[in-house]
User: Which sequence fits this backbone?
């Protein structure tokens, strides 16, 4: 291993060595190297300075903060009885925040669809209602010997049952003549 | 979300779901026994170009037949029980008997029997949506053809 590579390896382990996290042999190896290498020794000094300053901040910091007001505030909020409208507004606010709002989107879509499809049941003939197929379906038909045609026209959804007159062109009951058959 | 909020949400959601199911179940079960049957006897012919203004709602349907003139001869409406008969006198000594058959609220089955002087002309059973109509035509009348619009609405 070259000297530079060795220094890099040692410097990677200086922190662990200072925290006492290395094995006995590993710690001994680092210690011996630091005694003989001024550059790595300088690195160790820098780390020690950094650790010292961090410790000073962490130890001194909390003593400067007064937690009394904070804890009294928390206690006050816990003990305070909330009135119903505060609960209600809190609930409404929670509902209107995005994660809780997720249920609302499919619910509204379902309700709107159900409403539109049921409109015809409650308000027959409503223009907003979804119209079902308006075709009339002929289930059975008997022309008593006469020709009968059933026409279903798509555009107007019209079902027409047409009873043709006899071949002689005359209706047997009345003797009336039609002027023309329809040209559907 | 607070405990009250969760409870309120659950109660609200479950009650709205129940309400909608109840409403839909009610709508589905709402079977009326009364059916209003409405007929219009129309003379369709190629004599003249008259189009009776009273037939405006049916104009598009009637124009399918390509006659030049349409005149409303008679219009009548009757309320009838299911399985009961509604008899209409039709011009030309004809009579039309309409019998609503057993069916749901949204669809109706009508048995329609047209006769003339005691002789049956046609007997048909037609299923249509409540409020819908169909046309029955063909019998010759006054130089044209008689067209009968038959509609039924569950009450």
Assistant:
């Amino acid at each position: 291993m070259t000297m530079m590579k060795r220094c890099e390896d040692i410097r990677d382990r200086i922190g662990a060595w200072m925290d006492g996290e290395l094995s006995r042999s590993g710690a001994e190896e680092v210690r011996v190297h630091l005694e003989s290498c001024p550059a790595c020794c300088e690195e160790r000094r820098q780390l020690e300075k950094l650790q010292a300053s961090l410790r000073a901040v962490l130890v001194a910091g909390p003593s400067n903060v007064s937690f009394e007001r904070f804890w009294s505030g928390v206690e006050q909020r816990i003990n305070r009885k909330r009135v119903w409208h505060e609960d209600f507004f809190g609930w409404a606010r929670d509902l209107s925040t995005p994660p809780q709002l997720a249920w609302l989107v499919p619910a509204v879509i379902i309700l709107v669809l159900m409403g539109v499809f049921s409109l015809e049941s409650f308000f027959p003939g409503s223009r907003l209602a979804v119209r079902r197929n308006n075709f009339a379906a002929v289930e059975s038909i008997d022309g008593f010997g006469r020709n009968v045609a059933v026409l279903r026209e798509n555009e107007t959804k019209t079902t027409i049952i047409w009873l043709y007159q006899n071949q002689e062109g005359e209706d047997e009951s009345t003797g009336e003549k039609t002027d023309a058959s329809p040209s559907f | 979300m607070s405990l009250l909020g969760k409870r309120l949400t659950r109660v609200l959601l479950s009650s709205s779901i129940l309400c909608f199911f109840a409403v839909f179940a009610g709508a589905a079960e709402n079977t009326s026994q009364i059916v209003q049957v409405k007929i219009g006897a129309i003379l369709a012919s190629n004599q003249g170009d008259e189009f009776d203004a009273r037939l405006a709602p049916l104009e598009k349907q009637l124009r399918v037949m390509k006659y030049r003139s349409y005149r409303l001869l008679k219009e009548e409406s009757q309320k009838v029980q299911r399985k009961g008969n509604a008899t209409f006198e039709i011009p030309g000594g004809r009579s039309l008997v309409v019998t609503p058959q057993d069916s749901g609220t949204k669809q109706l089955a009508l048995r329609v029997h047209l006769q003339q002087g005691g002789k049956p002309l046609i007997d048909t059973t037609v299923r249509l949506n409540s409020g819908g109509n169909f046309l029955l035509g063909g019998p010759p009348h006054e130089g044209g053809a008689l067209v009968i619009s038959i509609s039924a609405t569950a009450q």
